[in-house]
Amino acid sequence: MFWQLFYLPQPSNLHYVCYPESCGRFYLDPEHRVRRLAGLCKEYNLHIVLSGKGYVIAGGERHELLPGSGFLYGPGESHDYESDPNDPWDVCFVHFAGNGIEPLLEGKGRGEVWLFTLAQQRSRVEQALEKLRRLSEAFESTNEPAVSAALYEALSALMNDAGHHRRTAGNGTREKMFEVADYIRANCTRKLNLKSIADKAGYSPYHFTRIFQEAVGKSPTHYLTECRILLAKNLLVITPLAIKQIAYETGFSQSSYFISIFHRMTGMTPQQFRNLYG
């Protein structure tokens, strides 16, 4: 059995979009199981499976998680997860909160656990969380911005890349809307609009908007905008691209409109965001 657990002091700057309360890693523990009643954990709880396998118990079902998959619980949610006794998982985890974290996470983990599977950005998410653990192990107060930035990089890559871990294999309307949501996220840099997305889904724009809203919790156009802003945040943090170029790269035809939408959704301009997290 191997454990790493690092608790961090409260940050001096309370305006970080995200900041860890604790983080770590554990593996080779066939008896590892966590059950928490609702209200006991005040932070978000994120786990990524590195190897082995384990299970999340939710909705009366036991969901198997393999390497590259993970789960997210929102603040105050009850927890129920465990390692496989015959193939114990190697898991990295972080408990975190933040100021304005909700738009980034799009409500994931609220009301029910979010199960996901990483694809192209898996190594980037894992590397960012490894960097977070290293910074936490040798924590210095001057590294607060780097700690927040490492966590933000992991979360933004996760939200860009993670597909929904399907609880059922059905072909119902709800399942199809989540597939459309994945399509929107993967193609948000293209010149998508409501009609083109509705055509892709095989519905009229009016009918598609209604059933997408019911399944995903927001309109398709709002979801598309959120995906573009999330990608823009990522580019602002990890690239030196000019604001005008980032607007173009994320599907906005005018940089002024991009800046306006970014400010409305985040409470700051793209340049202010870059100055804080870049």
From TrEMBL:
It comes from the Bacteria. InterPro entries: AraC-bd, AraC_XylS_family_regulators, Homeodomain-like_sf, HTH-like, HTH_AraC, Tscrpt_reg_AraC-type_HTH. Residues 178-276 form the HTH araC/xylS-type domain. CDD domains: cupin_MmsR-like_N. Keywords: Cytoplasm, DNA-binding, Transcription, Transcription regulation. Transmembrane segments: none annotated. Pfam families: AraC_binding, HTH_18. The keyword Transcription applies. One of its GO terms (molecular function) is DNA-binding transcription factor activity. SUPFAM superfamilies: Homeodomain-like, Regulatory protein AraC. This is AraC family transcriptional regulator.
